[in-house]
Prior knowledge:
Elements (H helix, E strand, L loop, with lengths): L1 E4 L5 H20 L5 H16 L1 E10 L2 E8 L7 H18 L5 E8 L12 H8 L8 E8 L19 E6 L6 E8 L3 E3 L3 E11 L6 E8 L2 E9 L3 E7 L4 E9 L12 E9 L3 E7 L4 H12 L3 E7 L22 H7 L6 E5 L9 H12 L3 E5 L22 E7 L6 E2 L28 E5 L4 E5 L5 E8 L2 E6 L5 H4 L8 H12 L9 E7 L2 E7 L8 E4 L5 E4 L2 E4 L2 E7 L4 E7 L2 E7 L18 H6 L4 E4 L9 E4 L10 E4 L4 E10 L3 H20 L1
Parallel strand pairs: 3-4, 3-5, 5-6, 6-33, 8-14, 15-16, 15-17, 17-18, 18-24, 34-35
Antiparallel strand pairs: 1-2, 2-36, 7-9, 9-12, 10-11, 10-13, 13-14, 19-21, 20-22, 22-23, 23-24, 25-26, 26-30, 27-28, 27-31, 29-30, 31-32
Amino acid sequence: MTLGFDPFLPLPFLLAIAAVAVLLVGWAILKRMRGAALRALALAALVLALANPVANFEDREPVTSVVAIVVDRSPSQMSPDRTARTDAALAALTERLARYPAFEARIIEAVTDPDAQSPSTRLFEALASGIRDVPSSRLAGAVMITDGQVHDVPDSLAGLGLDAPLHGLIVGDEGEVDRRVDVVRSPRFGIVGEDQEIVYRVNEDGAASPGPVSVTVRVNGEQVSTETATSGEESSFYLNLPRGGENIIEFAVEPLEGEVTTANNHAVTLIEGIRENLRVLLVSGAPHAGERAWRNLLKSDASVDLVHFTILRPPEKQDGTPISELSLIAFPTRELFVEKIDEFDLIIFDRYQNRGVLPVLYYDYIAQYVEDGGALLVAAGPELAGIESIAETPLAPALPAMPTGEVTEAGYYPRLSDDGKRHPVTRTLPGGESEPPAWGRWFRTVGVGDTVGDTVMRGSDGEPLLVLNRYGEGRVAMLLSDHGWLWARGFEGGGPHVALYRRIAHWLMKEPSLEEEALRATANGRTLVVERQTMGNAADPATITLPSGETREIVLSQAEDGLFRAELTLDEPGLVEVTSGDLRALAHVGAVDAPEFRATVSTTDIIAPVSDETGGLTVRVNETASNLPQILPTRAATVNAGDRMGLRASNESVLKGVRSLPLFGGFLGLALLILALGATWFREGR
Length: 686
């Protein structure tokens, strides 16, 4: 209750009346008039009635104090056991808080952003965001339900605006064990064919006696080695990069008995393979217009070291020209095809014929080079159909087609075959999708039979024009026309000769993106894109294995001829394995080597120092949360509740309404005035 005034007259008039009353009373007292005290009382009652004193009664309601409950929903908490424990602790805590009308529970779900650069458990950030609208005087405290692996613990809680006790409820048993493998150092880029050092470490958190551990190393999904590492010590693995582009190197360890999770039993590092200059040997059997097209293409590529020879003077030519006047060098056949043949990434025979320049035995060396993993391209002209054809040499077993001896000279549009519409070398050639194709004609085709491999382009009357085949570990391509230069010259609008020649060369050198049968998986944020390249008309479903071990099967839909694709949004970061038949692909969803999986055993050591600073409590809770500490409400400025969770109740209240009672209003004021005047009259009457 509070007292106030609500005068009937303006304040100046009321003061004037009060002043006159004081003068009259003072004059009466000075003259020693009888009844002066009663007159003073009557005048005071009159002035007080005009001032209208009022008693104000406020109706107030106490406000509840907010208890912030931060629930850890990070990936390390997603195992069934920890999820169940977290839910049990949350249910028990909210049920217990409901017994106290002074407290209001505010649940804050701390979910890890899978699109973050480095996914981690950020509970204090979630707490600061969740209590932003709560005045500090209304905050009773905060409770974190977590495994204790928190990555954003501040140096001081003052910056978070938290001036209340912080408690930690740790889900997980003491003495948990977990084995994990981490990549300590790895190059981001590396030269293909050179050794790269990758430093890794195996840790066994909580293990009684760590010892030697077997580590399986896979490169691009294929196992390449089994290493032995000592737990807790750094180990080095030297990798000879197998290919250009992205290489996924995976280190895997066997699960430890009873460990918390197997999600961190794999570690991945990505190395971008950079090819040194490719060495290409181009041998032209005779000068012709198409020779320049090949030479210009290869010379324009800065990553290609080109060695080019054109046979202008066969050995049998004897015209009496003195050797001192010859401007050409001798063809170094032994050096190229015996001593240094393995140094070349690709050999191109451009309209080459067997005219005795190469000994017959050297063709066998070339065939062996291809069988051992080399690449050979035969850009054929009429010479392939003649009696000096290289198909009549020991190179014949490596060739995917044998000439029939016929050469067709008639205008035709090079067309994609059914296989060519699915093969990555020719599938997306610009202009090939229309009929007739949107490119110029060629006018010569070398007839062949007994073809093996894939005929991806056809020429006149459907004859094979481009044949691709594998031979042993290597690859061979035959382009059965020497008129590709017409596209380079822009004849009838030209054609995609650069794209065609480059793709043939890259396929021969085993570019991963041009494989006929391939399974690829790429991750863009949380979206996993699975692609299946195949020469078949359909693709089998793909099986996705998530980091947690959960498997999902997805159906691939046709995106183009020979290409099937599916997209899937994943909430679980980590290494994802995709399989389809015998093919296997890996992709890493989210950040590589995320802090979230570096340590997963539950611990009280991280939160306890901060909790102690605020007078809070950090304890482990069991499966059913039956050992949840009791709650102690307090209004003290500092909280130290011992083995109970102290929560500070607020002294704040909300004004619901105000009731005003005039003290001199109604019968009470009238009775006082009558009593005062009556007493004055009575005194005067005596």
